[in-house]
Amino acid sequence: MEEESECVEPVLECLGEEDEVFDLVEELQGSTMMRTRDRYKSSTSMFLLHLYRRNHPALNPAFAQEMKKLLEGPRPRGRCTDMTLIRDLLPGYSQSRPLEPLLWERVTPEVILAPIAKLRRENSKTSDSKINAYRAAIHLLFKDFERTSVWQAIAPTVSTIINGWKKRIARRRKEDGVEVERGMSALPFKLYAIICKQLAQHKLTGPFAWCYATMLWNLMCRSDNISYINLGHIKCKDDHLLLYFAHSKTDQEGKLAKYPRAVYANPLEPWICPVTALGVYLICISACVGGPSTGLPLFQGNQEDCARRFRACLCSEVKRLSARLEELGLTEENIGTHSFRKGAATYASAGGTACPSSSSISLRAGWSQPGVEDTYRRFDAAGDEHVGRVVTGLRMHHEELALLPPTFVPTASEEQEFIMECARECMDVTKVNPGVAWTCLASVIYHLDTLKSTLPSCHKLWSDRVLGDASRCARLQALLFCGYEDEATAQQHNLCASGVPPHCSLLHSLEQVKGEVVKLIPSVEEQIGRLPVILQTALDEAVEAGRIEGAPITTANLERTIMRVLDGTGIQDIRRLLVEGQHALPAEETHQAQLQTLSDFGLCPMASLPSNFMVPNMTMRKAWQHWTSGDERTCRRPWRSILPAEITDRKARDRLKRYRKIMLAVQDALPHGVWKETATFQDYDAMFDRVQANFEFTSGTSLKRRHGELSWDTVLRLKYKHSRGN
Prior knowledge:
This protein is mostly helical. Helix content is 55%, strand content 3%. It contains 29 helices and seven strands.
């Protein structure tokens, strides 16, 4: 106790008297409870109205008289519903001590659940979250009047009934085929892009609604967080913007405020680019902002009004897209501000097989991970940057995910001063971070031609003096750079891409190699086009002379002659370029890269035959397999390439001729276009199945053998006999 008093006394001395401390605590509790009551006021008022309209004995008669005075008396101007009037009688709204609304001993679980049961009967789509909010509101009512013990007595029964109710609803959905998805639907990415483009073209609310929509999608947060964004909480770092949330629903104490969200530009699609939308909005409001940057909200006006304004713009746009919604299986009621948050998270996690980690998505969206958050799974800037690149609309399976945003690359101090002067004219840099203004202006100038061709001429953007000056816009566009970090301009200005997964860098390198190969295609085609003529001429001369380079025509001599001809066509140089790319080999390594055999050209050199080669007896299928694919044991090349001139033994040569006749007959029996010189083993086998019936003959002996067991030589003899008989 002494240690505790020693800790408390310095705090009291700093704050003043004890009464001031208690006033401060009461003020904090009051503000917190007021926000809670704002969320629960509808449920509590609905409960009390239900009891009042039925003259329920659980309702306090004195409280019922006060309700009667309000409901039957004169009403104030404006929108004033019954539930809004009753709110003045509830704790936190009444100036005097409120009357107790209920006779607590008469309150039962059935009394509490009757209003929500009636609501469920009237609207079968009542969500579980609404039921949970109703239960929490009634619990708060008991707590306000210090009837916690009464609530604890009936709370288990209430929870049991609600849980059983949910199970019954789930079974009914299964039996009746009712839609399973509840709440707002996730906004598809294609529909999001269409909505953003349409919102940007609105004459009056376009800049606001467009910026609000892109921020809502890219930050994956609740609508309230967007309404409370402050200009002082938007920073710039390297190739992206940083947005800080000082407070959120799941971070009431601001412990996660030090972890910003990374927001990236999209150089390919301006309508879904949050940096471009932010730049257009800041330029349009530059003439009407005021106050210090640390206290100036991004969206002007009351924060609740901002959310309501955006919902109105969204609803009007969704109505225009009703036909498109039907194609996607959605309705107007399914699309709301929360659809952006669900859609962005769904797109980031399910848009491909190389998506960001679930932890990075959960941390960005502000979803708690009980038990592991901040213990086993911590915030990491690289993970959030990866999510930021994906949700901005850059394809996660393409090299474009590694694109640098549009940025100015001045080479002289005069150019840098010119850019800052234009940024100061477009946006008030005393209220907007200079780096943010620089980055946003670069994206707007980069997409200026697209904006001019799409936005209406009466758009607020075109009243800006800088964008209305063609000469200054042309000069700014000349100072822009947008590309990859391995390009010369990026390396010269030390521009690096953050949040890029490794596979995107590999894809970019492959695209570069592809570009170099494409450049070589014309020369390769030219050399290949000349190759048949050169080979044909050289071989014709050799055959006419009967000798090759002073030696008889043999396999080895023929291969050496073909290699010499290929070497003279320049094929080696093309191969070296394909292997080396832009990097030349040293002189001593160049010699090793010379082609040595036909296989280096992708050609199959003819394998020499054994001296005792003879076609053996085998079935027709086996003979066809050797004809098309060869035999690894005796001759690795297809036997159809073996010519009788290669065999010196007369008997073996005559047997080869008979073998070639029957195999050529099989080949000729194939339908037109079926035969292919190069095919797989299975394809050749399928070819034989198509013509096998044409070569099934009766042997004429007493032996009963199936057709598939006859040798190729027997089939050839039977074929001749059959043809003579006909």
